[in-house]
Amino acid sequence: MDTTENLTGGRATRGSAPDVPPRSSWWNRPRTVVVGAVLTGALVFRIGTALGVDPQVRAGSGTLEVTISAVIAASLTAALAGWGVRALLLRRRNGGRAAWLVLSGAVLLVSLLGPLGAATAGAILLLLLEHLAVGAVIALGLSGAAPRAATAA
């Protein structure tokens, strides 16, 4: 039977599907992290508001209320940006895991400055917890997003 090498090093026979690694290791995981980050942000926000925290931030001479749609949009934006940066770092020879963890940690620390502008102590605590929770989901979830190397059978 005629066989050929496919791009992943696996063998395929003529008329059969090539030996392709599953997409779950490099495609489904980042998508799951994006959804998880959005759900985490929304959940922390809902719990905080259910406990009576009024999430308002100072804006100019007044205050601005933080809404669930703003939380979802910010979490989604951060997760998608993280996915893009992680995909670029995966092109490095070593997979860029260490660089990813340092970079995502630095971005998380800078993002923690934002909640310090909240109007009340409860709002500061809620927004800090939200940033930490979403940041942890993104940083740790995408740190293991590297595709698995094909093993010889």
UniProtKB/TrEMBL annotation:
Entry keyword annotation includes Transmembrane helix: yes
Ranges where the record places region Disordered: 1-24
Record flagged with keyword Transmembrane helix: yes
Membrane-crossing residue ranges in chain numbering: 33-53, 68-89, 98-118, 124-146
InterPro entries attached to this UniProt entry: DUF6069
Keywords associated with the record: Membrane, Transmembrane, Transmembrane helix
Name by which UniProt lists this protein: Uncharacterized protein
Taxonomic path: Bacteria, Bacillati, Actinomycetota, Actinomycetes, Micrococcales
